[in-house]
Amino acid sequence: MTVAKRTFDAVIVGAGGAGLRAALQLSEAGLKTAVLTKVFPTRSHTVAAQGGVAASLGNSTEDNWHWHMYDTVKGSDWLGDQDAIEFMCRKANEVVVELEHYGMPFDRTDNGKIYQRPFGGHSQNYGQSPVSRSCAAADRTGHAMLHALYQRNVRANTQFFVEWIALDLIRDQDGDVVGVTALELETGEVSIFHAKATIFATGGAGRIFHSSTNAFINTGDGVGMAARAGIPLEDMEFWQFHPTGVAGAGVLITEGVRGEGGILRNAAGERFMERYAPNLKDLASRDVVSRSMVTEINEGRGCGPDKDHVLLDITHLSPETIMKRLPGIREISIQFAGVDPIKAPIPVVPTCHYQMGGIPTNYKGQVVVPKDGEPNAPVVGFYAAGECACASVHGANRLGTNSLLDLLVFGKSAGESVVEDIQSGNLSLKPLPADAADASLARISRLENQTGGESVAEVGNAMRRTMQKHAGVFRFNTLLKEGVTAILDVAERSKRTEIKDKSKVWNTARMEALELDNLIEVAKATMVSAEARKESRGAHVRDDAPDTAEFPNGRNDNEWLKHTLWYREGNRLDYKPVTMKPLSHDVEPIALAKRTY
Ligand SMILES: Cc1cc2nc3c(=O)[nH]c(=O)nc-3n(C[C@H](O)[C@H](O)[C@H](O)COP(=O)(O)OP(=O)(O)OC[C@H]3O[C@@H](n4cnc5c(N)ncnc54)[C@H](O)[C@@H]3O)c2cc1C
């Protein structure tokens, strides 16, 4: 197969919120920028974001970035890096107002300001009472945001390669990143995108689980590509289960529903969150609400004939409020649960939603790895932003609306870093290694030429079942141990996948097979990192690390206040310190404390 070569200043993989925000920075600076995307940009998963984007604008209730920073550090169960968190919370107002100026159609308050609603874990005055911090466009915030960013990129002449799937990262003999290989879905052609800078913005990998709010395209491609290229993956044991997926379907019901006053009830009609989180109740952070729901179900207080879900009740809200603020939710509920929420409560269960870990980056969007005794040494030419990256602002648990903010802040800062590094001459076009496309071509050839191998669909199902059973909302020592063996076994099988019907090799079948290679890396990293972390923290809660006086909530800061790094080579783990020091010398660190809501 011949391999065409294209050369750019920068190549960005991913056209969701993070990729588009980064691209805008580059194109507006006049750099020749290519954006590769598996789907049309405005179909990226960001389009599905419902509830809003966090910023302490204080339009409805008093607010400031110090409170936002405190909530984010506490939400992360102190695993988030405080320099990056300070950076994100301080930048929030600026990037949201910028978006407003790009034409984002936010909802408005009566006096014309951006409408804001309360969200889980966001509070006034260091945890005292809920605050309205989520800037929203009804329950279609991501949709509005993605369209505003896409249009702005069209204006800036960003060059899009739509329905192209990036296959592998290219590193030279120094380990520097010099581009990617990619397959065009229409023609099956493989190309090399040679660039001074490569930015990954490939989104999440929620499809490693059976039950997920994520789109089918969320297959962790960037994370898998980075792992295959020898980059360690950070904090992959931490996955967020969103409390309110539609029971049976998994489709998301935004937390904004509880922000607007929705209440969770068990079979007895009781508002059970009052028992688990007396202050913030239904608006406690997501890990806390999800575990409370599973506890209610496990203790026999679930609803329905199988007692396998709880109810989300908004029947006390006026139909006008529901139609104005939550129209999409009403549609989802009618379509997927057969329930009109104006008249009856929605059946919900916790569902896999968000990956807190990912490719390690600093607050500038540079990918960083341990090197020569330095825990965070930048990899030349490589940047990442959005859900595929771990900055780390979400630590062990992300607060709702902080992801859309993460895309804007770190998409922009990754873009700024690239512009700076190219314009200052720090980055130049390095030669491609002679074997730049070999690994990708070998994978494609295996899929088509191997016989007697495994079916992609069956191996994928085995992976999803294994992850769901062994690494769910609650984690058990024995299940995790068995899970490691099971997932390594599935990974072995994935090396022998092939496209079964050789007479009809569609590029979509190729794509599914190549995506599975990436999902498997994410699944292995998750299980191995989770088995090794012998404490409970944030979304990672183990039966053998319970809440005790010595270890509040099961968290063990003496041994485990550190980031996990998983290396694909040798299936090896390493750790690096959490940055407890904020970015600015005059900002006080948020001191360790027990997390209660
Ligand atoms: C249903 C739902 C609702 C949510 N609601 C909210 C909310 O209200 N507020 C909030 O803060 N967060 C929310 N989140 C989380 C948030 O939306 C996501 O974390 C965020 O949108 C991810 O953005 P991204 O730019 O990193 O990736 P995505 O938007 O997922 O985009 C990934 C891009 O990468 C491309 N891509 C991937 N792999 C390849 C490849 N191999 N080659 C080429 N292109 C590739 C895709 O085509 C796509 O363009 C929600 C998530 C879901 C699933």
Describe the structure.
The protein is of the alpha/beta class. The protein folds into 3 domains: 305 residues, FAD/NAD(P)-binding domain (3-Layer(bba) Sandwich), CATH 3.50.50; 107 residues, Succinate dehydrogenase/fumarate reductase flavoprotein, catalytic domain (Flavocytochrome C3, Chain A, domain 1), CATH 3.90.700.10; 135 residues, Methane Monooxygenase Hydroxylase, Chain G, domain 1, CATH 1.20.58.100. Helix content is 34%, strand content 21%. It has 16 helices and 22 strands. The strands form 6 sheets. Strands 1, 2, 6, 7, 8, 9, 16 and 17 form an 8-stranded mixed sheet that branches. The mean pLDDT is 95. The protein binds flavin-adenine dinucleotide.
In summary, what is this structure?
By secondary structure, the chain is an alpha/beta fold. It contains 16 helices and 22 strands.
Number of domains: 3
Architecture of the largest domain in CATH?
3-Layer(bba) Sandwich
Secondary-structure content class? alpha/beta
| Ligands bound, unique | flavin-adenine dinucleotide
Catalytic activity: a quinone + succinate = fumarate + a quinol
Biased composition (Basic and acidic residues): 534-545
Pathway: Carbohydrate metabolism; tricarboxylic acid cycle; fumarate from succinate (bacterial route): step 1/1
Domain FAD-dependent oxidoreductase 2 FAD-binding: 9-404
SSE inventory with pairings:
Blueprint lengths: L3 E10 L3 H12 L4 E5 L15 E2 L10 H11 L6 H20 L14 E9 L4 E7 L5 H15 L3 E4 L1 E8 L5 E8 L5 E11 L20 H8 L4 E2 L4 E8 L9 H4 L3 E3 L7 H4 L9 H13 L11 E4 L5 H7 L1 H11 L8 E10 L3 E2 L5 E6 L2 E11 L4 E2 L11 H22 L14 H12 L4 E2 H15 L6 H18 L2 E2 L8 H26 L24 H4 L1 E6 L4 E6 L20
Parallel strand pairs: 1-2, 1-9, 2-6, 9-17, 15-18, 19-20
Antiparallel strand pairs: 3-5, 4-5, 7-8, 8-9, 10-21, 11-14, 12-13, 13-14, 16-17, 21-22
Helix pairs in contact: 1-4, 1-11, 2-3, 3-11, 5-15, 13-14, 13-15, 14-15
The structure holds flavin-adenine dinucleotide.
Flavin-adenine dinucleotide binds next to helix 1, strand 2, helix 4, strand 7 and helix 11.
Cofactor: FAD
Subcellular location: Cell inner membrane
Organism: Aromatoleum toluolicum
